[in-house]
Task: structure prediction
Amino acid sequence: MSMRVWPGRPYPLGATWDGEGANFALFSENATAVELCLFDGPDSDKESHRIRVEERTDQVWHVYIPGLWPGQHYGYRVHGPYAPHEGHRFNPHKLLIDPYAKSIAGTVEWSDAMFGYRIGDPKTDLSFDTRNNAGNIPKCVLVDQAFTWGSDHLLKTPWDKTVIYEMHVKSFTARHPEVPEQMRGTYAGLTTPAAIDYLLGLGVTAIELLPIQHFVRDKHLADQGLTNYWGYNTIGFFSPDIRYATSPVRGRHVREFKTMVKTLHSAGIEVILDVVYNHTAEGNQFGPTLCFRGIDNASYYRLADADKRYYIDYTGCGNTLNVTHPRTLQLIMDSLRYWVTEMHVDGFRFDLASALARELHAVDRLSAFFDILHQDPILSQVKLIAEPWDLGEGGYQVGNFPVGWAEWNGKYRDTIRRYVKGDGGQVAEMAYRLTGSSDLYSMSGRRPFASVNFITAHDGFTLRDLVSYNDKHNEANKEQNKDGTDDNASWNCGVEGPTQDAAINQLRGQQQRNFLTLLFLSQGVPMLCGGDEFGRTQQGNNNAYCQDNDISWFDWNLDRSQRLLLDFTRKLIAFREQHPVLRRRRFFQGRHIRGSEVKDISWFKPDGKEMSDDDWNAGFTKSLSLRLAGDAIAETDEKGRAIVDDTLLILLNAHHAPLAFTLPAHKRGVRWQPILDTSITADNEKPVLMLKGGEQYELESRSIAILKLDDTP
Result:
């Protein structure tokens, strides 16, 4: 049965419903013909209509169909040359996902028909497969974007007041006893009082969600009964993944995602998305034909100059998106704007961001990607966070992203781990990392909040496992424990995993408190890996990307030690929020400010004497203290009022033995009040004694203490 069609418009790209019908627009520079295929449902393997798209404007194929309604399922078949050596892999036998699909129903069901070449053919990817894959590929869904946002808006929490909580949508609520069972592991689960109250009680201001853009479960994982749980295998840059929806009804998960964002905003919590624009789920030349490869392989991917059959791979995932092509760059920018304007997200963390900045091969700070972001009136106003590395040569770019960007500070993570472990020669590096990494960011005009500080993240050991395992235990990933990084534990006691030894468990708990204390005392933006606040374990698995089970899901049945650690973390975050000197918007100067009697920051040896150049250069010191002068901040608040805070003294002892710290003098007649000591728990509390300058504070081995200046007469 034929359908009435109109020429339509080349913009906007994708499928757009206007209340009377739908416009479809698809870019393909090298295609010879395009067919729009309509389906009656997500599981249909045969089109109800196949419409030849006749109109083409500026390499965009477009058609308008009156009378279509939201919920209509569709896909494309694209004709053109199958010439891999020339970079072309068109195959009209393969139904393709719309790169601009706002909703994708279902997931890939693997079969040999999902590949554009014949699996098992001696010619490998140079062969041509004619099987129809329509029954195996998820269909795109036409959606109605209408949503009652009310007064909802981007929160724009200032960077200096931001505390990020990295989490997986499913892991957080999959086993939560106070979340209704049908809502566990979903967008809706994060709207429940149990989830909201927990995040607010913890004190975080933003959640950073592992990828929720529609992704593909890799075939090799599916064959082993595993899955791509983390989601770093995107195929739909505009569609929230349906696996986190409570209902599979046509496009309803888009509304569920918006409801989640609106609810979190009402609680004052920002939503940051971890996005993967550096590669797609189609892999290398032996990968499936799902979307971009069949629509215009030569435009969307970076191909080898010598033989365009092969893909340039800066990501370790088989391919790299060709950001040097204007239409691919447009795809990324349109996707980002969509998530901000239509979905109201507050920012993005860019996976392997260096790959996006490669113009030819080198990472370029002046690349088109950066230029367009900085000039965009919408995207330049949201939080932009880079994972500042990729797997290509010269890809490690910590400190080299331009103004306007924050970065996952890998040098911070590595330095803090080495120091807490007890490695020598770390004090000079520690000084930079604790104070916002001015060596990395100040010369380019950036602020301390350019540094997103973290100890652990989704990729690697959890904090509890970091102090409990000397080696990774990734056997469940079925790769003979060869996957994952050699993520050495922060100390070695010869006992791995669970133990009944009280002394070992005490030290493990103390090391966790040390890490958390340093994280929330450091200048910059703290990022807490979800679950670290109560000692979540993955049983030593430091690469749980394929584990959709108890290894990844939060266990909310907390024992006493976990509840104490959670309470400790809450107090730490609250302490940081209460003290502006811990979240400065400018770097310390190391000099007297506004006529203050003391410098804004001072460093001391355990004997109470200020550190000299020789002391910094000695390198072997494991113990030192720093004084942050709250009355010498030299900053103003949002209303221009001078900021004055308590003066804090932080004592650090990474040595294996206790140490007596001589407290420095500050002002005559004032005393130091102990606030926190990571060696002290509810089981070994000590009386709080006010101490004068010149008196000593006994600090246990491998511990940290905070004291506050008290000028009460």
Remarks:
- The first helix runs from residue 169 to 173.
